[in-house]
Amino acid sequence: MVTALDLRLKRANKVYREGETLSGVVIISSKETVPHQGITLTMEGVVNLQLSAKSVGVFEAFYNSVKPISLISSNIEVAKAGKLPNGRTEIPFEFPLTVKNNKVLYETYHGVFVNIQYTLRCDMRRPLLAKDLTKTCEFIVHSLPQKGKVSPSPVDFSISPESLQNVRERTSLPRFLIRGRLDSTNCVITQPLTGELVVEHSDVPVKSVELQLVRVETCGCAEGYARDATEIQNIQIADGNICQGLAIPIYMVFPRLFTCPTLETTNFKVEFEVNVVVVLQDDHLITENFPLKVSRV
Amino acid sequence: AAAHGGTDSLPPPPPPEPASPVQTPGSPLPCDTEGLCPDDFPLFPGMSNNESAPDTDFLLTLCVYIFILFQRHSRCRNYKAELEACRFEVIPVEFGDFHPLKLITVTDSKTKKVGRKGSTSSTSSSSSSSMLDPLSSLLDGSDPLSLFAATADPLTIACCQPSFKREREEETGVGSDFEPWCGKRGDILARYTTTEKLSIGSQKELLNLTQQDYINRIEEQNQSLKDAWATDQKVKALKIVIQCSKLLSDTSVIQFYPSKFVLITDILDTFGKDSYQHFICRNCFLVLQDNFSPDEVNETAKETCLNWFFKIASIRELISRFYVEVAILKCNKFLSKVGISETLPRLTSMIRGIGDPLVAVYARAYLFRVGMEVAPHLKDSLNKNFFDFLSTFKQIHGETVQNQLAVQRVEIPIYLTLYSPAIDWILQCIAYKAPEALLTEMMERCKKLGNNALLLNSVMSAFRAEFIATRSMDFIGMIKECEESGFPKHILFRSLGMNLALADPPENDRLQILNEAWKVITKLKNPQDYVNCAEVWIEYTCRHFTKRQVNTVLADVIKHLTPDRAFEDAYSQLQSIITKVLYNFHDFAVLFSMEKFLPFLDMFQKESVRVEVCKCIMDVFIRHQQELTRDPVILNALMHVCKTMHDSVNALTLEDEKRSLAVFISGFIRMVSFGRDFEQQLSFYVEARSTFCNLEPVLVQLIHSVNQLAMETRKVMKGKHSRKTAAFVRACAAYCFITIPSLANIFTRLNLYLHSGQVALANQCLSQADAFFKAAISLLPEVPRMINIDGKMRTSEGFLFEFLSNFFSTLLIVPDHPEQGVLYLVRGLLNVIQDYTWEDASDPKVRTYTNVLHLLAAVSQENYLYHVDKVDSNDNLYGSDPKFLAEINKLSDTLIGQILDHLKTLGKDENLRRQSALAMSLFNSILIHGDLRNNKLNQLAINLWNLAQKHGFADTKTMVRTLEHIKRQNKQPGMGHFAELALRLPLQSRT
């Protein structure tokens, strides 16, 4: 009775790179023979840009510039109009992931204002009285490894009341000294962000220490741009009044899909930062910000 | 059944040979002989009615006639000759001769054939010996199993290797000597409880759960986790686990934290196992082996697994993330070979981020727990965890903790004990198979930390007892240095004591250790703390010191626990002290000579506990007392103990309880012996009877003991009693005679009457024996038809039949009373049987009559089958007097008449199968005991034979075998007439 249409990619993790071939099968299963008027496959890669609500006023004039940007698109017919036998039919397919005229396949990225997404869609047109069938699946593109080595760039930091900016009343601040180190701000996306942090001393006990991963998305063109920073995730690395003078590890895994290698194009930018946030028992919030350069090797 | 020569159902066991002694002479047994003289016998009815019997069955009518005419129908027996004739021939076996049990020839070729099966290589085992023991040949390697293992078959090797590898790995792993976590969880749950209200989830909701509600809630979570797995809702499962592990960051009711940890980590363990299993299932081929490489894992499973790790890595809360990551540590195997060894150090240092020291130490314990299971070979990483703990140790005494305790109103000593389960566990993991040097290092590190009582205690709990014991003096020193306000000292001494109970300290230190320790223990003010220590240290005291020191300790315990009746709250510990003392002192003379032992027992004032303790003492006594005793100290004390047990019996006592008490008391009675002082022995039994009168089995034991005493006396006197001993054995008989009626069980009474009668007879107390037998006979009519056996009502017929057979066997040798008629006891018994209301005129009655026929046949012999030494039986009394024989014949006639009557009834009631069987049984009896040269008897036998076959219910095989037997008997001297008989017995063929 029911005809089912499914798409199955060869790779379980659905990850492909530019220059590789996207392959898989279209699977149609039905208990009866399936008459149809052609089955087609469409592969698309698109960048969607969105404007944050607070920016909309400014950007009305540039409406055009937030049209989706197509990265790749192709279409093939896998079966001509006809009938498929009952049972399970598998039709294999292949798409070469190649682009022309200097275009680049950006890495898949799910953000707030910038979305880079690749999809594969299969359509089966059917005769009258039967609904057309559609199946869509997302596949993931990893950008090509960056040329050249990523040189580690360790950062040592030290936070004390004196080192802080944006302080309303410096006098009300308790005394504290927090030292730490990030092993590198040049990060490889598949490797965790590491380092360590020591509360050397603090008059007020520490309540929590967190790592806040932030995305900074910029949309725009020559006429103007919008830059928004939003939180991707917040990872607690210390809970409660930790032992003073003892180094606690900084460790954070970059989440998949929500992070990508730092990206800078003419129309948009995707960048990442990490905040080391120390919350004191009296709810003082101390933040130290570190821009990251993320790459894939 | 009739086939073999000598189906002699008559001779029963000869009277028992127990032992024996005395009471005041003279007093005749209080027995009356009512209704036992032969004149009273109404003799069997039915005997005169023969002619009037309906002639429906001509056979029977005929039989009945024959009998009236008889003079002597039993044949003469030469028992000795018969025994010789029936015995198997004994043939000596020469060494090397064939013997079925000695040699089994196993052909070599066969063995080898089996061995080669399934292997391609040729085995060259050609060992062959003429004498091959099948078992040893299996062991020398030619059996199929070991051959299989030895072949070079590549498949075999492939199969075997992984398992070899695993074995090797297990050497570094955890063996059965490692006490697993599951052994601890129960203790923790029982120990760390609270009456405060608890909360789950955000503080707003559910703020008012009781502990039990809380446990139920967590159990619900556990259940929904299982459901989630069952329905393949992986994400839901993960969410539940994250929620649960969040609870571990909440220390609001801190006394409950260890229990909470146990409950929640149970869930985490389930989760860890399930998820590992889940991935394993995705990779069927991995199921069998534990050592797979990540390359073998299929992509989809890897991808799912990776997904999980990403999800978990993004959990916000440190504590949740930590616990979930640890729970699925094992799954790292799917992704990378080095996954676990890389993750372990990271997780270890992750704990540094946990500020609360209690939460942190339990996190460490959990990491140890999973680590020991998943990667026991990574000991160094695990140990790093402990060193981290030491470096954060000062946190425990930090200000944050102090404030928290102030808010929750928890005392520091209580708070510190919350750490013990975790630290104990951690140290146990470290100490497991650790070299001595490591332990020394650990101890040094612990010493360096300021207030180290907490650690010290865990070191003592976790490290090997031998290690601790050899350094006992050091430990005592360290314990003394600990601050008074910190970890409770009595717990430290308790822990030390536990080690000393298991391992011995150096010889020279022993007394000093006891003195030093006891100096502190005796100063403990809280009786509970005190008794907890004493309970442990008593073991050490018992093992290494004498009763003097143990007595001192007992005295001290009494002193501490008597004020305010403190012992009432310490029964279990006190009981444990007693048990330990008993375990170490088996010599009851020594035990009871401790002057504080009995006063110590007086502290058990709650009856149930008191009885338990008494049972315990008796148990040890019965098991370890080697020799019989007459030591007045032991007897007095144990009498007291037994009396306590006995007096605890009341209407509500369970049968089982009574039985076990009776076993202990009887055991005690059996252990008492005054040697040759028989009179003293008897008076002990008299005292015991009055003391233990409520326990029937004990009374039974006493009767047996007294009978034994009588037999012992007989043995000492070599069968010839003097005036004095004769009086003594009569006293014994009197004791039994008065005691038996107080028993409730009728069969016990009957058997004891019989038994005591036999003993009296053996001791030549004829009138006493008569009294016993008469008592048994008068008791018989009271036997109920149904009796209660193990809670079920059963017919008593079987027991009655058995008893009667036994009784008749004894009556063979009981001489007739000169003033009574011939065989008056037999007649008396027969009368009772006749009047007894048998179940529907059943066969047992008739079977009993048949047995009596056997008896009468035996009675009519010139020399009886057995005798009692120095007692003249009827064979000597009457010397086969014709009058005597005539009496016997008359009785036999009556009996046969009865049996035939019964056969007739069976014919009428269509119970033909029973009729056939009974006829056959009577035939057999006549065959064996009757003199078949007598024509009439001969005719009766033939008639019975025919009757048995008449309705086709006879078993042909039996009939054939019986006939063969008759033919064989024919060859015996004086049995010539059997040939003729055989001819007259037709075999009815059934078509």
Automatic annotation (TrEMBL), chain A:
Signal sequence interval, chain numbering: none
Superkingdom, taxonomy of origin: Eukaryota
Cellular component GO terms held in the UniProt record: endosome
Predominant location: other
Compartment annotation: Endosome
Pfam families from the UniProt entry: Vps26 (PF03643)
InterPro entries named in the record: Arrestin-like_C (IPR014752), Ig_E-set (IPR014756), Vps26-related (IPR028934)
Keywords: Endosome
GO terms (BP aspect): intracellular protein transport
Subunit structure: Component of the commander complex that is essential for endosomal recycling of transmembrane cargos; the commander complex is composed of the CCC subcomplex and the retriever subcomplex. Component of the heterotrimeric retriever complex consisting of VPS26C, VPS29 and VPS35L; within the complex interacts with VPS35L. Interacts with SNX17 (via C-terminus); the interaction is direct and associates SNX17 with the retriever complex. Interacts with SNX31; the interaction is direct.
Family: Belongs to the VPS26 family.
Known role: Component of the commander complex that is essential for endosomal recycling of transmembrane cargos; the commander complex is composed of the CCC subcomplex and the retriever subcomplex. Component of the retriever complex, which is a heterotrimeric complex related to retromer cargo-selective complex (CSC) and essential for retromer-independent retrieval and recycling of numerous cargos such as integrin alpha-5/beta-1 (ITGA5:ITGB1). The recruitment of the retriever complex to the endosomal membrane involves CCC and WASH complexes.
Name by which UniProt lists this protein: Vacuolar protein sorting-associated protein 26C
Gene: vps26c
TrEMBL record, chain B:
Record has Protein transport as a keyword: yes
Keywords: Endosome, Protein transport, Transport
Location within or outside the cell: Endosome
Compositional bias segments (type: Pro residues): 10-19
Compositionally biased intervals (Low complexity): 118-131
Region of interest (Disordered), ranges: 1-31, 112-131
A cellular-component GO term for this protein: endosome
BP GO annotations: endocytic recycling; protein transport
Cross-referenced InterPro entries: VPS35L
4Fe-4S as UniProt keyword: no
Record-stated family: Belongs to the VPS35L family.
Listed PANTHER family: ESOPHAGEAL CANCER ASSOCIATED PROTEIN, VPS35 ENDOSOMAL PROTEIN-SORTING FACTOR-LIKE
Protein name according to UniProt: VPS35 endosomal protein-sorting factor-like
Taxonomic lineage of the native organism: Eukaryota, Metazoa, Chordata, Craniata, Vertebrata
Recorded name of the encoding gene: vps35l
